[in-house]
Please model this.
Amino acid sequence: MKKLPIVLLLTLLGLSLALATQNQNKNSNASSANANRAPRKRGPIFRATSDQIKQAQAILKQRGFYGGDQTDKLNPETRAGLKKYQQAEGLKVTGTLNKNTLEKMGIALTEKQKLM
Model:
C-alpha cells in the first residue's frame, strides 16, 4: 500500500518530463523552420517625382482636397488630400502618390515608373 503513492508520483513526474521535452522539441523545430526561410525580396520602390507631386497638388487643389501651396514635397496636408481623393475615386486609400493614383489623375509616368 505504501508503494502505490510513490509509484503514482513517479509516473506523473515521468509524464510531465516527457510532455515538457516534447513541447520543447516542437518550439525548436518551429524556430529552425522560420530561421531557414529566405527573407522576402522586395521589388523596387515606386517614387513620385517632384514635378508629379506639384501636378498632383494642383489637381487636389482644383478638386478641393488640398488647400496648401504647390511644393515638391509630400507633406501631411498633401497626404491627407490624397487620401480624400483616393477615397472619392474608389482607389486604395494610401495617402501616397502611387502608380494607380497618378494614372487616375492623368499625370504622365516616367519610363522607369511604367515598368514597375
User: Anything to note?
Assistant: Residues 21 and 108 are 62 Å apart (CA to CA). Helices lie at 3-36, 50-62, 76-88, 99-105, 111-114. The chain has five helices and no strands.
